[in-house]
Amino acid sequence: MLDECAAGEKDDIDLAVKAARRAFGRGPWSRLTHGQRGQLIWKLADLIEDHLDEFAQIGSLDNGKPLAVARVADVPLAVDLFRYMAGWATKIEGQTLSTSQLGSDYFAYTLREPIGVVGQIIPGTFRC
User: Fold this and answer.
1) Is the Cβ–Cβ distance between 42 and 8 less than 8 Å?
2) What whole-number distance in Å separates Cα of residue 89 and Cα of residue 35?
3) How many domains are there within the chain?
4) How far apart are CA 116 and CA 5, in angstroms?
5) Stated pTM of the model
6) Contact between residue 79 and residue 73 where contact means Cβ atoms under 8 Å apart
7) Residue 19: CA atoms inside 13 Å, Cβ hemisphere, count?
8) Of 104, 110, 89, 84, which is closest to residue 38 (Cα–Cα)?
9) Cα–Cα distances in angstroms (integers) from residue 21 to residues 26, 61, 113, in the given order
10) Is 63 a member of any domain?
11) Which of 25, 42, 58, 89 would you call most buried, defined as having the most Cβ atoms within 10 angstroms of its Cβ?
């Protein structure tokens, strides 16, 4: 076993999300430009790639997946996903749609914004 994880309930998630929101509001991330955020996410991908074998080993031990699969699929796919998302940091923008009705011009405007801190329950098992 690599680690132990305490069982949590709704109140535990609520406390964790509140703490993360406070940290986000007070920390440096919320004050970075979109470009700076993208650069940091890309750097994270580079660091993961630099330590591919270590992450593959940890992933294999953690979820029982064969090491070879973690090396050629899991870790490289994670690197690619981080790089893809790094590019989106500078492309969060809205859209204007024409909703013309009865001969008059109306427009609908959208603005895409990150939703912020969330609590997630993510399965982490692998079966051969």
Assistant:
1) no
2) 7
3) 1
4) 24
5) 0.72
6) no
7) 6
8) 89
9) 9, 32, 16
10) yes
11) 89
DSSP for 25-86 reads HHSSGGGS-HHHHHHHHHHHHHHHHHTHHHHHHHHHHHH---HHHIIIIIHHHHHHHHHHHH
The structure tokens listed for 123 are 């399965």
CB atoms within 10 A of CB 119: 14
- Asked whether residue 21 is domain-assigned, the answer is yes
Q: Residue 109 falls within a domain, yes or no? A: no
Give pLDDT tens digits for 43-92.
Answer: 999 999 999 999 999 989 888 889 999 999 999 999 999 999 999 888 87
Residue type, 94: G
Nearest-10 Cα torsion for 36, 38, 42, 44: 70
Q: Does the residue 78 lie in any domain?
A: yes
What residue numbers bound the domain in which 22 lies?
A: 10-92
Residue 65's alpha-carbon distances to 29, 41, 81, 112, 124, in angstroms, are 34, 26, 20, 37, 11
